[in-house]
Amino acid sequence: MLFFTHPVREACRLNNLILKIAVPSPLHRSFDYLPPAKIDRAALQAGVRVRVPFGRRTVIGVLLSTSTESDIESHKLKRALALLDETPVVSRDVLDMVQWASDYYHHPIGDAVSSALPALLRRGQSATVTDISGWRLTAAGHAVDLATLTRAARQASVIALLAPHTDGLPREAIEASASVLHTLEEKGWIEACVLAREPQVHDVAASVHTLNPAQQQAVDTVLAGLDGFTPFLLAGVTGSGKTEVYLELIERVLSREQQALVLVPEIGLTPQLLTRFRQRLATPLALLHSGLSDHERLTAWQQARSGEAGVIIGTRSAIFTPLARPGLIVVDEEHDASLKQQDGFRYSARDLAIWRARKLDIPVMLGSATPSLESLLNVGQGRYRQLDLPERTGVARPPSFHVLDVRKLPLEDGLSQPLIQGMRRHLDAGDQVLLFLNRRGFAPTLMCYHCDWIAECKRCDARMTWHQHDGQLHCHHCGSQRPVDTTCPECQGSELHPLGQGTERVEQALDAHFPGVTRVRIDRDTTRRKGELDRLLQQAHSGEGRILLGTQMLAKGHHFPNVTLVGILDADHGLFSTDFRASERMAQLIVQVAGRAGRHERPGEVAIQTCHPDHPLLQLLINRGYPAFAQAALAERQAAHMPPVTGMALFRAEAPAADTALAFLDSVAKRIQASGNSAVETWGPLPATMERRAGRYRAQLVLQSEHRGQLQRLLSSVVRQLETAREARKVRWSVDVDPADTY
Ligand code: ADP
Ligand code: ZN
Ligand code: ZN
């Protein structure tokens, strides 16, 4: 070395610059590459996309960092092919967050980084193009006589749709398959075109409300801390004006030329919320949810990144959206399980929101009428600050509860007499009634009365649900279906009967009990077609539907002012489940559904049908409310050493043969024992509650510890070992840190 002059050494180092790249792959590490030829060093910013050779393929990765060191000898390193971006597509704060999340959730970094990008960017599209691709009719297309297309209805409908739009329509606006469009293009009737993106403009109106003292205090407290990181928990009973608090804060954030990111559980379910945001906030809204086309998603992402959109509203993956001028993060319905991704990269968007806000040094507000025990514990330990909205706004009063002991009451198609009478009373008074049953289909069981045979799924340890609308048995777990059996396959008897109720059956019963009374049923089956959910919700809101019947799709976030009676047809699911979170979820659901009642002048009533009217948690919930329930539930978790008081992680595994998954988890348990880490306890491995699902046998191993750091270290070391372990190749396995359920 002594013989080298300084400039040579410098050149040497530049040559040896190594790129650490996150490449989509199942491996828990980044990959080293040499920079592409003839690249300016300044272009190598963390967060830009890089095209690299990977095995026999070429893939798109993201640059994490540069280094002068690599574990691989430099002559063996491959050279990256090209940089795709001039400025990072993954912003610094998002990149740091994803790297942290990849470590914390033990998910491969390449895949984690991928989840932060819109699909089109993952596939290499330019991040800056803002045109929208669309279709328009050609002259020949305009001349087509639709009467000649009676045998090609789908082609005809596209032509009819496009005819009045001479400039063309965006691809998203055309409900037709790619093959239909292709055929029309081949015939020379339509052609692709490029549409300019229209700037969003809408009228806004100031709030019609003056904040009540509790709302004002919540707003003032957050405003006082707008220049730094503080996590707030806005605990407000349903209808207490939480959304009004968000809007007020967001207005202030916008007036500071900053952006607000708002996470919500399911956008499709909350058109009212979007309308309120649009009416109040004089800024383009960027919406990010699963119903978007790839193109719409990229557009919204660009509006957030450029700062064009002042407010970004989205479901959990919106937490990865780049923000030009972040000012506030809001997580609405923070208790909702959908904020935790349940497969692949199993992150909690709520917990990432806290992480990102800390990194950005901005406030974050979690809001709920039924806060999660996690957040309540964080308040108790002084990490979050709680703001209360204890009362409903205006004249609305809390509803009264009636527990109906269905062991003593005969049920007619799932409805007890007192409930039916109550419904009559409320309907006669001109009010609406909401019935909640978290089970779709006609009947959850089909049984032979002669030999007790029950129709089961051939691929799952589960019963088939009978759906009357298509005369099929459906498995709600794997999606398989078959025609309803007419004779018993065991005894050839013909006495096959449906047992139990789903929403379809209750709807039929309503016909008999309340003939002529209009109703709206909202569940996955009635809302499959695009636009159908909005239409049904509209009927529910307008009062056109007098009886509203539905699954949890009806329970979340809606505001039905004229509903005065809520009937919960079966509250028992959560009381005796194997999952430790079941009672918490049940309480949240009951309170949320009940919260739909009596949000107006007339007081609301809630009727709960249960076989366990004396259950202590149910009684506590009804008599003393959610806060008392939550404190008791938290004390129970404390006594049982369960989360959130302790840290928990799950190894999950599945395989086509019965014992493979268990054997694999056994070997994981042995590795854990061998680590000698006494701070982490393991339970299992055990078969999953539903062991066989979609033809695969599933099992899990639970890890628990009071020392989250120790649990993390152990997970890192075991996951690293499993990457090269032979037994791991026989199963599909994953780690779930802070699992939302233990099924
Ligand atoms: P939440 O989000 O807690 O369910 P909302 O913000 O939707 O509550 O408020 C419930 C209802 O009360 C809405 O119709 C809203 O317009 C109204 N509201 C909110 N704040 C006030 C207020 N300060 N005075 C009167 N009405 C209000
Ligand atoms: Zn039989
Ligand atoms: Zn199945």
Characterise this structure.
31% of the residues lie in helices and 23% in strands. The longest helix has 17 residues, at 708-724. Helix 8 (213-224) packs parallel to helix 9. Mean pLDDT is 89; it is low at 1-13. With 743 residues, the chain is of the alpha/beta class. The protein folds into five domains: 8-122, PriA, 3(prime) DNA-binding domain (GIY-YIG endonuclease, 3-Layer(aba) Sandwich); 131-196; 213-389, Rossmann fold (3-Layer(aba) Sandwich), CATH 3.40.50; 400-443 and 500-636, 3-Layer(aba) Sandwich (Rossmann fold), CATH 3.40.50; 647-737, 2-Layer Sandwich (Alpha-Beta Plaits). The protein starts with 5 loop residues before the first helix and ends in a 6-residue tail after the last strand. The strands form eight sheets. It has a seven-stranded parallel beta sheet, with helices on both faces. Strands 16-28-27-19-26-25 form a six-stranded parallel beta sheet, sandwiched between helices. It has a five-stranded antiparallel beta sheet with strand order 2-1-4-3-5. Strand 17 (411-412) and strand 18 (415-416) form a beta hairpin. One zinc ion is lined by residues 448, 450-451, 453, 488, 490-491, 493.
Task: Please sum up the structure shown.
The protein contains 21 helices and 32 strands.
Secondary structure blueprint with pairings:
Blueprint: H1 6-15, E1 18-22, E2 31-33, E3 49-54, E4 57-67, E5 82-83, H2 92-104, H3 109-115, H4 119-122, E6 132-137, H5 139-143, H6 153-162, E7 169-170, H7 178-186, E8 190-195, H8 213-224, E9 231-236, H9 242-255, E10 259-263, H10 271-280, E11 285-288, H11 294-306, E12 311-314, E13 326-332, H12 349-360, E14 364-368, H13 373-380, E15 385-389, E16 400-405, E17 411-412, E18 415-416, H14 417-428, E19 432-436, E20 445-448, E21 465-467, E22 472-474, E23 481-483, E24 496-499, H15 503-513, E25 519-522, H16 532-542, E26 547-550, E27 563-568, H17 582-594, E28 605-610, H18 616-624, H19 626-639, E29 647-655, H20 660-674, E30 680-693, E31 696-705, H21 708-724, E32 732-737
Parallel strand pairs: 9-14, 9-15, 10-12, 10-13, 11-12, 13-14, 16-28, 19-26, 19-27, 25-26, 27-28
Antiparallel strand pairs: 1-2, 1-4, 3-4, 3-5, 6-7, 6-8, 17-18, 20-24, 21-22, 22-23, 29-31, 29-32, 30-31
Helix pairs in contact: 2-12, 8-9, 17-19, 18-19
The protein binds adenosine-5'-diphosphate and zinc ion (2 copies).
Adenosine-5'-diphosphate (ADP) is lined by residues 209-212, 215, 236, 238-244, 393-394, 559.
